[in-house]
Amino acid sequence: xxVEPGHTILVHAAAGGVGSLLCQWxxxxxxxxxxxxxxxxxxxxxxxxxxHHVIIYTEEDFVARVNEITSGNGVEGSLACxxxxxxxxxxxxxxxxPDPVPLSSLATxxxxxxxxxxxxxxxxxxxxxxxxxxxxxKVSSGILKVRVTDTYPLSEAARAHEDLxxxxxxxxxxxxx
Length: 177
Known about the structure:
Elements: E1 8-11, H1 17-28, E2 32-37, H2 40-48, E3 53-56, H3 62-69, E4 87-89, H4 104-107, E5 112-114, H5 125-141, E6 148-153, H6 157-165, E7 172-176
Parallel strand pairs: 1-2, 2-3, 4-5, 6-7
Pfam family, one: ADH_zinc_N
Domain Alcohol dehydrogenase-like C-terminal: 17-83
Keywords: NADP, Oxidoreductase
């Protein structure tokens, strides 16, 4: 998926570690960013991280709200409200394995669905160093701000995972040895 100025994207879990960075990155590229979160505290964080519109999915129907925001044109990023020939990228699953997507549902709008893993995008050492260099340059320049909100001793890794699964965390979670 290529995010360009004028695109509208939807980021679920916009206040999570990856979601926070994705919102900042897409905003820096000139995209309109819609984020979903579970509560008002996370909504404030998502706004700080570049979301133009934040939907608290526990309080409103995010599909209806996305359609309202986009005047029915849809977005990149969520099967239920994708635009014609839209892309959905499923990355991460801290709260469990996502439901399977019937392939026939993609045909209704000629949709694209991908489930990337980092190891396929940084296969060689050179690719890894280039990607890491790009990331650290964006952090150094202030385009991306890594939000570490929760730290756990390594001995409490199980609790950290439970908190992630139960959506008790925001930003990046760090385990300390």
